[in-house]
Amino acid sequence: MFRATVRAFVEREVRPHVDDLFTTAVLHEECARSRSGSFAMAVGVHTDMASPHLYWTGMKEIIAKELDL
């Protein structure tokens, strides 16, 4: 029942808003092969939480600063 609930939530609330879903899944599967949950989680946090936020909210400002515009 828990798996079905999580699956329904992901299908309804997450999947419609995610690009490159399969690439991310492969990345996490391969990180999980390390058998280090903290490593896999750290990679996931950076690739799925921190980096997209920086890209969508700061990219124009960062590029302008780097190019001295």
Head-to-tail CA distance between termini: 54 Å
- Strand coverage percent: under 5%
Model regions low in confidence, pLDDT < 50 over at least 5 residues? none
Overall domain count: 1
Average pLDDT confidence is: 84
Element order: H for helix, E for strand: HHH
What percent of residues adopt helix (DSSP H or I)? over 70%
DSSP summary, beta strand count? 0
**Gyration radius, rounded:** 16 Å
Which descriptor suits the 3D outline? extended
Oligomer: single chain
Structural class: mainly alpha
Helix segment tally: 3
- Biggest sheet record: none
Summarize the structure.
This protein has 69 residues and is an all-alpha fold. The chain has 3 helices and no strands.
Protein architecture, described:
The chain has 69 residues and is mainly alpha-helical. The protein has one domain (20-69). 80% of the residues lie in helices and 0% in strands. It is built from 3 helices and no strands. Helix 2 (21-32) packs across helix 3 (37-66). It is extended, with a radius of gyration of 16 Å. The mean pLDDT is 84.
SSE arrangement:
Elements: H1 2-14, H2 21-32, H3 37-66
Helix pairs in contact: 2-3
Give structural attributes:
single chain; 69 residues; extended; 3 helices
